[in-house]
Amino acid sequence: MLLADLAMQSIVAIAVHLFFIVIAFYGLQSVRLEQVFKKGHVFQVQIMMILLSLVIGTTAGNFFLQLMNWSSQLQYLF
């Protein structure tokens, strides 16, 4: 594998993860997490939103990247 290919894969992986993290954060804004936390703990709710966005976005990004990898390896089946 060439270094240029490795660099391109890294750029794509970073972009995909950032995209899914932003999508997860946007989606989580519709959930009322403040009802789960005690009143007046706004900072903790914001931290949980960020952490949940990271977890969901990274998981979705990994799934998407693995799916792309697996689909590119289908050519070796035939």
List the helices and strands and how they pair.
Blueprint: H1 3-28, H2 42-73
Helix pairs in contact: 1-2
Briefly, what is this?
The protein is mostly helical. It contains two helices and no strands.
Q: How would you sum up this structure, described in words?
A:
Helix 1 crosses helix 2. 6% of the residues are buried. This protein has 78 residues and is mostly helical. It contains two helices and no strands. The two termini are 22 Å apart. The mean pLDDT is 90.
- Give helix % range: over 70%
Low-confidence stretches: none
Distance from first to last alpha carbon? 22 Å
Indicate the proportion of strand residues: under 5%
SSE-based structural type: mainly alpha
Overall strand count: 0
The mean pLDDT is 90
Q: What is the overall number of helices?
A: 2
Radius of gyration: 17 Å
SSE order: HH
Oligomer: single chain
Shape, per Cα inertia axes: elongated
For the report, how would you describe the main beta sheet?
A: none
Can you give keywords for this protein?
78 residues, mainly alpha, 2 helices
